[in-house]
Amino acid sequence: MEKENFCLERPAKTRFLVVEDDPLTRKLIASFLAHHDCPCDTAPDGQKALDLIKEGQNYTLIITDIFMPNMDGLTLIKKVKEINPAIDIIAITAYGQKIKYKDVIEAGASDFIRKPFELDELEAKIKRILRERELRAKLELLTRQDPLTGIFNRRYFEEKLEEECYKAWRQKYPLHLTMFDVDMFKQFNDTFGHQAGDHLLKKLANIIVSSTRRYVDLPFRYGGDEFVLILPQCNTEAACKVIRRIINRFKQEDVAPASLSAGIARFIHTEGKKIQESIDDLIFRADEALYEAKRKGGNILVVDPLTSNFSS
């Protein structure tokens, strides 16, 4: 079984913002982007563009003039980069205007073009930027992906758990953490060999991914034969149903003598306590529940006692 290329995070949608005080140039660029099926918003100056970004609009690429009323392009570029460094920017200015390529690049722009320009030139610059973004995304995925199973790795788990717990706390929805461990994995390896053991781990990753909500639940390989699963926006009863389904599906595979144990805990944060302490406590309680499951012989799910009391 080859490593799966799971698409575990929702792909970002490409969206452009054209910032230009000249209505004819603004319309020309917007029409050009629309012709190439590129969703696009427009703004007549830097301040209105910044307002759109602060309202939560997520742009891939901004094409902005430099000399505009209310807020010039260089100021806009710097402020955009402070808010979201991932946004790429092409700066536009006219021949004869005293602005250097060095100035816009140091401000944070990805490229620079002078008026009057051919649309072919603009298209080439946009394509180059989008290719580079795609390459960066692939490289970033490699740093987050477990090379054997194709799901997320432990390094990304530590980053993502903190982010998801903060979000659950702010938006006041439940979040559960499940820890899995393959029972008798050493015996399985000793009997069938390490290649078969790798195959088993890939199979388990596939079961977890196919049993959970795409782009919502987050699966990770924690290390060795241990896996973890973050289940946001899910109550304890529903989360337990998902985990028991994973355990049962794994049992139905031809993996004897191996089976699967799991421990689950709910994120519980109280005012006056540091949120990192609550996150550490969540991991500790899920881990304790997992080892209680293993102490009971494995092949079961154990719910952390604090989670059971909280949910009752």
- CATH topology-level name of the largest domain: Alpha-Beta Plaits
User: Tally the helices: what do you get?
Assistant: 11
| Mean pLDDT, all residues | 91
Low-confidence stretches: none
Beta strand %: 15-25%
What strand order characterises the main sheet?
2-1-3-4-5
Name of the level-1 CATH class of the largest domain:
Alpha Beta
CATH architecture of the largest domain: 2-Layer Sandwich
H/E element string? EHEHEHEHEHHEHHEEHEHEH
Kindly, what is the distance between the CA atoms of the first and last residues, rounded to a whole number of angstroms? 42 Å
Sum up the overall morphology in one term: elongated
How many distinct domains?
A: 2
The tally of beta strands, per DSSP, is 10
The residue fraction in helices comes out at 40-55%
Q: Let me know the largest β-sheet.
A: 5 strands, parallel
Radius of gyration: 25 Å
What is the CATH H-level superfamily of the largest domain?
Answer: Reverse transcriptase/Diguanylate cyclase domain
Coarse structural class: alpha/beta
